Amino acid sequence: MINLELPDYLDNLKTQMKGFAEGLLRPIARKYDEAEHTYPVELDVLKGMPVMSRPKKKAGEEKPKKGAERKNGSNMSQAVTVESICWGDVGLMLSIPGAGLGNAAIVAVATDEQMERFGSKWAAMAITEPGSGSDAGSIQTTAVLDGDEWVLNGEKIFVTCADRCDAVVVWANVDPSAGKAGIKSFIVEKGTPGFTLEKLEHKLGIRASDTGTFFLKDCRIPKDNILGSAEVKKSTEGFKGVMKTFDNTRPMVASMSNGVAGASLEFLKQKMEEAGIALDYNENTNNVSAMQKEYYMMEANLEAMRLLTYKASWMADEKIFNNVEASMSKAKAGRAGTLITQKVCELLGSMGFTREHLAEKWMRDSKILDIFEGTGQIQHLIVARNILKLSRNELK
Amino acid sequence: MFDLSLSKEQKMVKDSFSKLVKDLIADNAHEMDEAGEIPVSAVQKAWELGCSVSGVPEEFGGYGMEDSPILSALVLEELAYGDMAYAVAVTAPSLFITPINDMGTEDQKKALLPNACTDDYHVYTMAMCEPHFGADAVSLKTTAEKKNGSYILNGVKCFAPCASQAEKMLVSASLDGENNLFVVEKGAAGLTISEKEKNLGLYSLETNTVTLENCEVPADARIGGDKGVDYDRVLARSRVAMASMAAGMCRCSLDIVKQYAVEREQFGEPIAHRQSIAFMIAEMAYETDAIRLMAWQAASRLEAGKSAKREAYLAKLYAGEMAMKICDYGVQILGGHGYIREMNVERLYRNARSIACVEALSMA
Ligand SMILES: Cc1cc2nc3c(=O)[nH]c(=O)nc-3n(C[C@H](O)[C@H](O)[C@H](O)COP(=O)(O)OP(=O)(O)OC[C@H]3O[C@@H](n4cnc5c(N)ncnc54)[C@H](O)[C@@H]3O)c2cc1C
Ligand SMILES: Cc1cc2nc3c(=O)[nH]c(=O)nc-3n(C[C@H](O)[C@H](O)[C@H](O)COP(=O)(O)OP(=O)(O)OC[C@H]3O[C@@H](n4cnc5c(N)ncnc54)[C@H](O)[C@@H]3O)c2cc1C
């Protein structure tokens, strides 16, 4: 039955996570924006926290009793949690030990034996290359089997957690003649000969996050370090399967945007209220000040972003295929979040340009959320291809 | 829990209205618009499905089901998917019935609801909007003054749906600075109803200007008695209705362009193969979803008996802005053909403007 109110336990989770964000992240947000790349030691308290754990095995899964109240699943909890933490600071959220994108991939596809070996490692994810960004299927890094080892060669850029991670899930092609079908992912541990962290990037925002470049030069890793099967199938189903992991992470990035935009709007609201500008959700927006009208419109956009994110997350929990909705949520939240944080700075005037306040930082931080894990344009492509039933050759 | 799935009942109701619209309205909306009227039989058919009365207790003539803003939101989206003018005409009585059922005194319910909740559709409506520049549903110029136990109403209202045929209507007016609703009967002294207004859109819907000149109504005409009404809730329910109708119109525009863009070829291939077209369509899709979700969010709060002032306000604001944008894209994607009145996107473009300009055309 339709009900768009969050249940109490999710509301409480939100409050709890916001409290955590306010107590632990906000106070150090500026510090690590300035001390770019420095590991935030304050986050050590989160070490060992099960951020990414494996869902319970099927056999142990309890079927909800008939008549028992249905509950929202883990994707909804995640949407609420990620938003609240990013309300605190998105760069720091990306620095939480053990919560790398590589961890998500490992949790999703690793064998029990691999889980044993790598489950507790902080794992980054390396797909992007200098010549291959949005078109992830065109990566040039190769992996060749030589006896009991894979030999990897290539360059990976923009790897989040490059410095701090223990291992990297690297995408490489085992059979370039097979195109995308040859793309597999491999776990490469730090310290492996031939695997070097080349440099860290200086960025517009999320400066607390260490984004870096890796070189792989005749880098040898054990044969067992491949995630999933080594077999190259004729179809691109395998590649599509890897991309599917992003159906769950796109709403997560949308949640990040909801968090940053929410922080930004809340700050504006506070300043407006301090100045005696009331927000009563009452008057015709054409009879209020320009500032109030902008505010209302932004808050409406934030609701839209959030509800589209909840929809994609709810579908994932209900095991409804959510490829389109996941992209919709990221397309909307990525763009609208960027616009909100920009506008808030404008409305704050001098307070929006000074580094004394965090508004300018949120404007820098939010921009990445319309870029990584598929740019806004790529999300529109995914949505449009699906609803218009067009192939990637018809709609390029 | 947070849930977007429809219950059996919700699905059944939605499907029956969807079928009705497909059978009766979808192919006729343009002709209705040109003719400037809606066949009475089409209105009666929707009425028989329980529009506006299902949430009224049986003793007052209703179906005795739960008074459900969510169900109304679903119905309004389906109706407006066919045609917004039709949606408003069919549900105009909800503007009268819903506030009374929700906030009237027992005596008012007994006295007013049974006549409005009959098997045959009769027009009951509300006059909320005002025609002056800067008009605002919360700062009404129409006034009510208490005098010798009755109320004297003065003011001018516009866009009152179907008012010329209404047996009774609710009129919003400020009483000592508080917004209230009063029942005004057909033919009341001091009540003048204009000819059909000529509007940008909704050609087939009759709307009227309602003038009240020292119009005297009895003490029990004030809905809610001495307490008055929860005016915020009245507005919230009407705003959810506006947003839901916006979702219906946007979905209609989207469905038209989805088909058109893959069929229409220029420069040797379907225009849908161009990102500038395809991306507009993607945007139409998620913004339509967003409008609907915001309407449902406000409706969920109303359904739980909570205040939805903020949610409904934002939902209507968003719907007003986005429906215009989406229906604009609808015309644009059809190019010159979209500018021709035979194409439904043209009507949607005009009708969409009503969401931001007008208040209280229906109640969820
Ligand atoms: C801070 C940061 C962290 C990152 N973290 C990671 C990480 O951990 N792991 C990882 O693998 N990658 C990571 N990335 C890389 C990120 O995913 C890519 O930057 C992103 O996918 C875009 O690729 P690109 O930068 O090469 O841009 P390009 O693909 O070159 O795109 C440039 C522009 O063209 C547009 N464009 C491209 N193709 C099309 C098309 N078909 N139609 C229309 N427009 C198109 C894009 O939308 C964009 O606007 C990170 C990037 C940054 C900046
Ligand atoms: C009131 C009116 C008066 C007119 N007067 C005249 C007149 O006097 N003489 C005359 O000859 N014509 C006239 N026209 C026709 C007018 O010039 C065309 O309607 C216009 O050029 C668009 O063509 P179309 O309607 O076939 O749309 P289409 O070409 O089918 O375009 C449909 C949509 O696809 C888009 N599109 C098309 N190709 C591409 C592409 N390659 N990339 C991206 N998007 C694309 C368009 O922008 C549009 O949004 C008139 C039209 C109207 C409505």
Automatic annotation (TrEMBL), chain A:
Keywords: FAD, Flavoprotein, Oxidoreductase. Residues 58-72 have a biased composition (Basic and acidic residues). Residues 50-76 are annotated as: Disordered. Pfam families: Acyl-CoA_dh_1 (PF00441), Acyl-CoA_dh_M (PF02770). Residues 124-219 form the Acyl-CoA oxidase/dehydrogenase middle domain. One of its GO terms (molecular function) is flavin adenine dinucleotide binding. InterPro entries: Acyl-CoA_DH_CS, Acyl-CoA_Oxase/DH_mid-dom, Acyl-CoA_Oxase/DH_mid-dom_sf, AcylCo_DH-like_C, AcylCo_DH/oxidase_C, AcylCoA_DH/ox_N_sf, AcylCoA_DH/oxidase_NM_dom_sf. Signal peptide: none annotated. PANTHER family: ACYL-COA DEHYDROGENASE, ISOVALERYL-COA DEHYDROGENASE, MITOCHONDRIAL-RELATED. Belongs to the acyl-CoA dehydrogenase family. Homotetramer. This is Acyl-CoA dehydrogenase.
From TrEMBL, chain B:
Residues 234-356 form the Acyl-CoA dehydrogenase/oxidase C-terminal domain. Its cofactor is FAD. The keyword Transmembrane does not apply. Residues 126-215 form the Acyl-CoA oxidase/dehydrogenase middle domain. It holds the Pfam family Acyl-CoA_dh_M. Coiled coil: none annotated. Keywords: FAD, Flavoprotein, Oxidoreductase. The keyword Endoplasmic reticulum does not apply. InterPro entries: Acyl-CoA_DH_CS (IPR006089), Acyl-CoA_Oxase/DH_mid-dom (IPR006091), Acyl-CoA_Oxase/DH_mid-dom_sf (IPR046373), AcylCo_DH-like_C (IPR036250), AcylCo_DH/oxidase_C (IPR009075), AcylCoA_DH/ox_N (IPR013786), AcylCoA_DH/ox_N_sf (IPR037069), AcylCoA_DH/oxidase_NM_dom_sf (IPR009100). GO terms for molecular function: acyl-CoA dehydrogenase activity; flavin adenine dinucleotide binding. Gene3D superfamilies: Acyl-CoA dehydrogenase/oxidase, N-terminal domain, Butyryl-CoA Dehydrogenase, subunit A, domain 2, Butyryl-CoA Dehydrogenase, subunit A, domain 3. PROSITE patterns: ACYL_COA_DH_2. Residues 7-118 form the Acyl-CoA dehydrogenase/oxidase N-terminal domain. PANTHER family: ACYL-COA DEHYDROGENASE, ISOVALERYL-COA DEHYDROGENASE, MITOCHONDRIAL-RELATED. Belongs to the acyl-CoA dehydrogenase family. Homotetramer. This is Acyl-CoA dehydrogenase. It comes from Desulfatibacillum alkenivorans DSM 16219.
